[in-house]
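testing teh design pipeline on a random one, pls ignore if ur not involved
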C-alpha cells in the first residue's frame, strides 16, 4: 500500500530528475511521472497538495494530468525514492534547534563555504532542498542548520532582514542567498527568540 511519505518522495525524485536534465525527452518523461503520482493521490487517500507539499512544479505537469494515456511512465519504488532523497543532501554536519511544525533552514555547498541559502518550509527540509537541486547546482548541497518553529515564514523574514541590514545578501544569487555562517544565523535566531540556549 502506498504511503504519504513514499508518494512525496517519488514526486520529489521525479521533480529533482526533471530539474537535473536539459534533455527535452527526459523532461517530458519526468513531468509525466509527476502527473501520474499526483493523479494517483486520491486513490491512496491523499490530496495532490499533500503529495506535492506545495512545491511549485512545471506547468507541463498539469498538461499531462489530463492525458488519457498517462500511466506507463517508469518510476522508482517508494523505498528507492526515499533513499534517493535522503542521500541527495548531506546532513552529516547539521545543527538542529527549536520545536514546531515548520522549519527555517540554511544550506550551502563545499565550493562556496561562505554562502548559505536560508529558506523556510512547512514540509520536510531535506525533501525541500532536494527539490531545488538543478543542472546549475555546483555539487551536493549540505544542510548546515534546521530551526523548527511554528512561525517559519516570520522567522525566515526576520533573519533575512537582519542579514540584509548587515549587507550580507549575495547579489545575483537569488533572494535567499547570503554571505554568512551557521553561527551568525544562530546568533540572530537567539536574539530574535530571546536568547534561547545554544545546542551542545
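output:
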Amino acid at each position: 500500500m502506498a504511503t504519504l511519505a513514499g508518494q512525496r518522495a517519488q514526486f520529489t525524485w521525479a521533480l529533482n530528475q526533471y530539474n537535473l536534465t536539459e534533455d527535452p525527452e527526459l523532461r517530458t518523461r519526468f513531468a509525466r511521472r509527476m502527473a501520474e503520482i499526483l493523479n494517483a493521490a486520491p486513490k491512496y487517500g491523499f490530496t495532490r497538495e499533500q503529495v506535492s507539499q506545495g512545491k511549485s512544479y512545471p506547468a507541463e505537469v498539469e498538461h499531462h494530468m489530463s492525458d488519457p494515456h498517462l500511466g506507463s511512465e517508469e518510476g522508482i519504488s517508494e523505498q528507492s525514492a526515499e533513499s534517493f532523497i535522503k542521500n541527495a543532501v548531506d546532513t552529516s554536519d547539521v545543527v538542529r534547534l527549536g520545536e514546531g511544525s515548520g522549519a527555517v533552514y540554511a544550506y550551502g555547498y563545499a565550493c562556496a563555504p561562505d554562502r548559505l541559502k536560508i529558506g523556510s518550509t512547512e514540509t520536510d527540509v531535506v525533501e525541500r532542498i532536494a527539490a531545488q537541486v538543478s543542472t546549475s547546482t555546483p555539487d551536493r548541497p549540505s544542510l548546515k542548520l534546521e530551526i523548527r518553529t511554528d512561525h517559519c515564514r516570520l522567522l525566515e523574514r526576520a533573519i533575512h532582514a537582519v542579514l540584509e541590514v548587515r549587507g550580507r545578501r549575495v547579489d545575483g544569487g537569488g533572494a535567499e542567498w547570503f554571505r554568512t555562517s551557521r553561527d551568525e544565523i544562530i546568533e540572530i535566531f537567539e536574539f530574535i527568540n530571546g536568547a534561547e540556549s545554544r545546542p551542545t
